[in-house]
């Protein structure tokens, strides 16, 4: 084994994911020569404070000077696990221009500047891998790019944010309200101090942008993804969903239709027997539909030191294999199409609407006629008297373009018989 | 596009899977140059009867002469979808020796002669890919070999036979007996005329051998996998399982323990909230546990023309990418260890036993003492009087080595108070 090839790498960031990658590379040290025909060794670790002790890590590798890594010709792989757009973007771009291969877990960067960094990789014949950027440890990027490459994929959707899935699971199983479930998630460390990116769907939207780009071979960026958060979901909505045999999940949904790509993140009612309905707590899952494979689903841990480290280290192994085989840059950007992104107004969905109305004859007829006038068909209605002259009306519509539904909503908001419309949610319908 | 590289391939077999591969390659014709930097074109299709018309297929490609393919230097990829050991093994071996790359869906061959064909591929620097051999369209081989390569995997198990999963689903949901569910499966074309390989677990065992070999980096062959079929499962067993919050599934289970690899296929009781418990009808799923990724699951269609074709065509695309990148043979046999296969007597499991005993005081005590004398702990007991002096006793044990359980069973079979022991099943317990 003394003549096994040693590939030097640098780790940018020594936080949760960085320490996971560090540990896994240690554990796999003796396996690597047999698995890869090479050993990947960390030569440098970029940290903000080199004096801060980090348990289990060799502090002699620490540096706070990026140039030391960039200018070291021996370092062939740069592993970026700092997160955030800058300075990650500059480092990755400089590394690629220097001919270094890059493995990154950075969803923010890829969802906004994926094209730029992938183009840089292409230009320099480098590998740029990012399996960890979507759904943590769950293999999804490589299955989409390789295993399912012979499919025309029409749908990729999933539960790609563990924090919100945990909150919705608590609301469903323990009948908690949103605020209480969020407080619990924060206490347990599932939610960050500022939970905005999670609960408003921004984190999920970044992952949708990345997955849609790969699945449909056409660039989708973060700003193309419509988002609706879960902060307004109530225990009442969930109780109605349960009554109707459905479950509310925050879904990232991307569809490739004849008239363009639809991409959104919204709380959705899905049938309780759909495979995604059973994905609970902080688990993630991605569901794919293709013309050949039909339905497939990938499920597992979407975050955490070791699961995310597993995906990063898997990519490092792939780069090492490419270096050994002389095939770096073998698969890079696969966005060779330029498909239209559909504005949300054109997206078709079914809707769930919960409203408080005057409890008297003729009210449902009036509501129904507003829907009818706006091309919205009603699929299901539940009406319950809640006292004090008020009835709660829950309506599920058939599939309709969002703009028609919004038109109907505008009219209803002005109707005197309508007291309040606390909830408007979407209902999942299998694409045709 | 006129200068795009054309890679010629030959298809061996034009049955269900072969026609799926044929169709998918047609559908993807215009996409291939952009996805792969090359176009894969079928030059020959090996069939037994070249005169038989096959709908949608170009009959000018048909040949019944293997030599025509083998001796054609222009053919770079051989796609074997005939199934069975011979002549597939000879053809694949000859193709590899001639420097042709091979894509195959042949689980029988790989589970018994995987080493030989992988060695031949290695020797000649060829690709040999077989994603379709396990769980049809579901990506599992590549995720195990690549995405999860940085894990020490300790468990890989799954529902890898759609026929038996359909039968058990019918028995569970519609309370059918085995014979009726099998008859229905046969009528619907889910079961073959001779269902032995499915219902006895042999088909699943082949997939377990292949998955275990890859997951644990050590060769496991078909004969190493213990099998128990589902023919003796009754509606009564399923009713008890339901009562205990469990579901009966035919599971292929492989574990990498400190004392060796365990590999078996058996009907097992698993908790109703386990992700595999919700995988119903003819769907397949594979569940993996690793030191870094924790739990992950892959789910989808385990068979069928297009799903299996999706996996085969994905492999063909990979070979094409390797040819373009000059990196064929990049990843071949990953069995670099030589781990012991544990005899089934040493395998630890929990057991479910349903027995008919005399309905009088002291009987349970007598049974319990036999278990105690044989190092078997009892976890749960249900006793029901069934009339005519008979009680039905259902016992679930704690984890125990199979040999101890068997010893207890031998004693019980001789006891006069024991009238019959109609069911002995295993109960899934998460590995430690």
Please explain how this structure is put together.
Chains A, B: GO terms for molecular function: homoserine dehydrogenase activity. Chains A, B: Keywords: Amino-acid biosynthesis, Methionine biosynthesis, NADP, Oxidoreductase, Threonine biosynthesis. Chains A, B: Its EC number is 1.1.1.3. The structure is a homodimer. Chain A is α/β, with parallel strands linked by helices and about 425 residues long. The first copy, chain A, folds into three domains: about 5-135 and about 305-325, Rossmann fold; about 140-300, Dihydrodipicolinate Reductase, domain 2; about 350-425, ACT domain (Alpha-Beta Plaits), CATH 3.30.70. Chain A has 14 helices and 17 strands. In chain A, the strands form two sheets. In chain A, strands 7, 8, 9, 10, 11, 12, 13, 14, 15, 16 and 17 form an eleven-stranded mixed sheet that branches. In chain A, helix 1 crosses helix 12 and helix 7 (about 160-175) crosses helix 8. The model of chain A has no long low-confidence stretch (mean pLDDT about 95). The interface between A and B is large, with 57 and 57 residues. Strand 12 (about 295-300) of chain A pairs antiparallel with strand 12 of chain B.
């Amino acid at each position: 084994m003394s003549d096994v090839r040693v590939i030097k790498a640098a780790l940018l960031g020594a936080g949760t994911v960085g320490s996971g990658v560090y540990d896994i590379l240690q554990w796999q040290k003796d396996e690597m020569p047999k698995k890869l025909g090479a050993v990947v060794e960390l030569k440098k670790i970029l940290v903000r404070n080199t004096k801060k002790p980090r348990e289990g890590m060799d502090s002699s590798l620490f540096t706070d000077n990026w140039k030391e890594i960039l200018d070291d010709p021996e370092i062939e792989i740069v592993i970026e696990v700092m997160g955030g757009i800058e300075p990650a973007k500059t480092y990755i771009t400089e590394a690629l221009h220097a001919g270094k291969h890059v493995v990154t877990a950075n969803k923010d960067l890829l969802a906004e500047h994926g094209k730029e960094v992938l183009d840089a990789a292409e230009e320099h014949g480098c590998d740029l891998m990012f399996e960890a950027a979507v759904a943590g440890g769950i293999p999804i990027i490589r299955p989409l790019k390789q295993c399912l490459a012979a499919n025309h994929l029409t749908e990729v959707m999933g539960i790609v944010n563990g924090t919100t899935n945990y909150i919705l699971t608590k609301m469903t199983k323990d009948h908690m309200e949103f605020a209480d479930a969020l407080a619990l998630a924060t206490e347990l460390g599932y939610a960050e101090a500022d939970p905005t990116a999670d609960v408003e769907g921004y984190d999920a939207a970044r992952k949708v942008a990345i997955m849609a780009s790969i699945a449909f071979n056409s660039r989708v960026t973060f700003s193309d993804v419509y988002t609706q958060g879960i902060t307004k979901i109530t225990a009442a909505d969930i109780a109605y969903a349960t009554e109707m045999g459905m479950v509310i999940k925050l879904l990232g949904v991307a569809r490739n239709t004849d008239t363009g790509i639809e991409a959104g993140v919204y709380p959705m009612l899905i049938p309780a027997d759909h495979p995604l309905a059973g994905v609970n707590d902080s688990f993630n899952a991605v569901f794919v539909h293709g013309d050949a494979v039909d339905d497939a689903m990938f499920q597992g841990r979407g975050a955490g030191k070791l699961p995310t480290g597993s995906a990063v280290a898997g990519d490092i192994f792939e780069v090492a294999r490419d270096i050994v085989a002389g095939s770096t840059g073998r698969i890079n950007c696969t966005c060779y199409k330029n498909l239209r992104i559909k504005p949300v107004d054109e997206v078709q969905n079914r809707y769930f609407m919960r409203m408080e109305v005057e409890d008297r004859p003729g009210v449902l007829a009036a509501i129904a006629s507003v829907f009818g006038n706006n091309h919205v068909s009603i699929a299901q209605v539940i009406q319950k008297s809640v006292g004090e002259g008020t009835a709660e009306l829950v309506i599920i519509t058939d599939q309709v373009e969002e703009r028609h539904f919004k038109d109907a909503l505008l009219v209803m908001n002005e109707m005197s018989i309508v007291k309040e419309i606390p909830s408007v949610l979407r209902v999942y319908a299998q694409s045709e």
